[in-house]
Amino acid sequence: MTVVKDIMNREPVTVEMDSTLERVRNLFTKADTHHIIVVRGREPIGIISDRDVLRTVSPFVGKLSERPQDLSTLQRLAHQVMSRKLITVRPDTPNSEAIDLLLQHRISALPVLSDRGNLIGIVSWRDLLRYCAESGQSDCGTCDAAA
Predict the structure, then answer these.
(1) 143: which residues sit within 8 A by CB, 6+ positions away?
(2) Every domain of the chain and the residues it spans
(3) Strand ranges for 27-77 from DSSP E
(4) Cβ neighbours of residue 135 under 8 Å, at least 6 residues apart?
(5) Do residues 9 and 122 lie in contact, with contact meaning Cβ atoms separated by under 8 Å?
């Protein structure tokens, strides 16, 4: 049985709750990720997806038609945009259970927490699909959850 620690990203991108969306947007541009965890110290308190940023930042930023109010959208803070209801898993969570959580809550990533509640990774639906594709198995030990 494959568990989350076997496939999770062990270096999740994080920001503090008062980070601006300009910083968050720059991190999405630089990092190969679709989710950024908002932390207070090492405690995860929220998550921001690249889609959250696209919905919040004016589409006119960086365009000829950019106005001051468009630029002001970049000054919103992470805690104003983040999803606060975190659904998390532990490293020993079976992949099938992770898939169930993603489907049940209609989310695309799960922060992985240690027994002490510290952030140690993140697993996304892309990670799970990549594992299935690379393992060369038709069920990967996970597809029962999706059925």
Answers:
(1) 132
(2) 12-86, 87-147
(3) 35-40, 43-49
(4) none
(5) yes
Helix (H) or strand (E) holding 26: helix 21-30
Q: What are 107's two structure tokens?
A: 């989310």
Beta-bridged to residue 46, according to DSSP, are 38
The superfamily CATH assigns to domain 87-147 is CBS-domain (3.10.580.10)
Tell me if residue 82 falls in helix, strand or coil: coil
pTM, full prediction: 0.84
Domain 12-86: CATH architecture, name and number where available = Roll (3.10)
Q: What is the pLDDT of residues 97-123, one digit of tens each?
A: 999 999 999 999 999 999 999 999 999
How does DSSP classify residue 60?
T
